[in-house]
Amino acid sequence: MASATPTTSSSKETTNYARLCRLLVDIGTQALRDTLDAIHAPGNLHSVLAANKRTLQSLRAKKIINPIQWGKLFPAILTAVSSRDFDTTLLMVLLRNLCGLTAPPTGWDKLPAVTDLSREADIARVKYFRNTVYGHAEKASVDDISFNNFWRDIRDTLVRLGGVTYQDAIDKLRNETMDPDIEDHYVKLLSEWKKDESNVKEELGEMRKIQEELLHAQKEILHTLTSSREVVDQVTAQHDVPFKVVPMNLSAEKLEKFKRHFREDILMFMDNNELSPTGGIGEFLKYIENIYKLRTEALGYGCIEIRVQCHNLESLERLWKDCNHGDLNRMAERYLVTTELKKELDLKALRLSIKINEEDYLACKESFLEV
């Protein structure tokens, strides 16, 4: 015996639900479209989209805009773009991201305060009512009391968004006959609208999860690098050795002039870690770095105080040897005792002495032997 063909039946409650779906899908979408058109004139829409293409590309990368929607935004003939081709989800995305609108105090995803009748609040209400009505999807039915409350709130929202002309269309829809096929059609459309945004939320949730995992990994790497850097700093600090350039046989007055002469060069290094390009102390330090394979770490006042970092034991030993043999003294005089300096000090000659404390030398040497 052949089975009976299933039939679709409707009741007052299921019709109520389908009618709310149609109100949101048809008139709600049109209200959002008219709102977008009021902000960005249809004739100029292609220019607005082109100017904001980077923002839209970012939304596409986040999968907030899907490939089909992207094709609607940027058709083969760019000037042919029209908001008439945008689905409800895309309209909502554009309103929130390309129209300079500020989210209501309660945000875009929650019901705004009753006293907030701004355009932004009504845009948020459209989405809120969509979600609330869809909450009845399992039974696909809404009782009369709930229906009347929903209808009133949604109608008021859409009339504020679209204008008083919406009132007649909404009233007509409320009394229009709906056959079961039409009811099913709008129930499915509302479901698809909800599903589109749910997919976006899932994608965003997954992206946030990935971002959180990456952030955690970055923090772990940073912690490891910081710890490693601290160890390196401790080791390299042990390889530092200080020495002084001491002018010989100067009066207190001339010693002050000697210090002032190198003041700007020392300040340049202290502030910018740069050596003076005009010779003098800059040339002397370059000589030391090149000959002894050192790196200048710091300069100080007084008698010129220099702290260098030795890269290996060989460079330290050579520096110590040349210091004791007087070779460094001669090179310091060559680079530092300029004609200008001698004129300032009113001297025909000036002797310099490089001083490295033996304890500092031995401490640096020991740091290499311990590695």
TrEMBL record:
Ranges that cross the membrane: none
Domain DZIP3-like HEPN stretches: 42-186
Coiled-coil region list: none
Domain of life: Eukaryota
A Pfam family reported for this protein in Swiss-Prot or TrEMBL: HEPN_DZIP3
UniProt-listed InterPro entries: HEPN_DZIP3
Protein name as catalogued: DZIP3-like HEPN domain-containing protein
Species: Pocillopora meandrina
Lineage: Eukaryota, Metazoa, Cnidaria, Anthozoa, Hexacorallia
